[in-house]
Amino acid sequence: MGTITRHQAPEDADVPAPPEVPPPGPEFGWESAGLDLDAYLERVGHTGPVRADLATLRALVRAQAESLPFENLDVLLRGDVSLEIGALQDKLVRRRRGGYCHELNGLLATVLDRIGFTVTALSARMLFGADAATLRPVGHTLLRVDVPGGGAWIVDTGVGGWGPPAPLPLRNGAQVRAGDWLYRLDRTPRGWLVRLLRHDGWFNVHLFTLEPYYRPDMADFSYIAAHHPRSPFTRMVSVQRNGASERAVLTDRRLETHRPDRAPEVRTLAPEDVPGVLRGVFGLHLPPEDEEALVRFTARAPEGQEVD
């Protein structure tokens, strides 16, 4: 592999919920006919029932969040990713890789659609702990999943270390415990706010609306994420793994271990240690030429660099 180029670059509100927004029909276009469901279930380690009910939804969200890491390595190594179901299955299932939000939630949406759920893509503004009034760009993909007879739920396995590894009921003030982590969903004047309780208080994850977000929108935002010189995914290694009690976050050579009741533990890796951490901590086994390219890339990374 060649050289990787580094680019430079609220308060709770008592607001009534909006009128119910019906999910789109079959025209949404998930490629579920091309899905190898058995291979996906083996990849995430799900051996229980598979039906369109809340128990299956919870089990699959937890299994995917724990099995498929968030990672941007193909953006750095190859400059692009594909959201076609064949490419997603080859990368995330067959080659046992991870991906970023458009890939991870796109694959999960296809799985859930195949099983019989009604799945609608939504878009969000990532806050990374900022106040909900902060104007961040739209660009994150998440999912609304309607369970037959069980209401509407928010599903998001594409935030890496901060995303909820459990569905959130689409209800103002709802709180859900996922492993040792507590999440909250609040309706604010600007949209729905997902929050995570950390050792230092509530952390604002992202802000979304219920306007449907279609596959061409996902493709456009994925292209921006993979090509814009100010995108964090074109500037640094970003790999995260979401666990029930512990989350791991790798940003170039900075490895953080997060738990809900304490400040994160931080290590600065030597460049040559990065491939071993990718294998041992995140379960990512890359070809030797890709590992060598990442060693060269992280050797030029500023120490302590963080995604903002």
Automatic annotation (TrEMBL):
Signal sequence coordinates: none
Gene3D superfamilies: Arylamine N-acetyltransferase, Cysteine proteinases
Pro residues: bias regions: 16-26
InterPro entries: Arylamine_N-AcTrfase, Papain-like_cys_pep_sf
SUPFAM superfamilies in UniProt: Cysteine proteinases
Region (Disordered): 1-27
Pfam hit, one: Acetyltransf_2
Family: Belongs to the arylamine N-acetyltransferase family.
Name of protein: Arylamine N-acetyltransferase
Origin species: Nocardiopsis suaedae
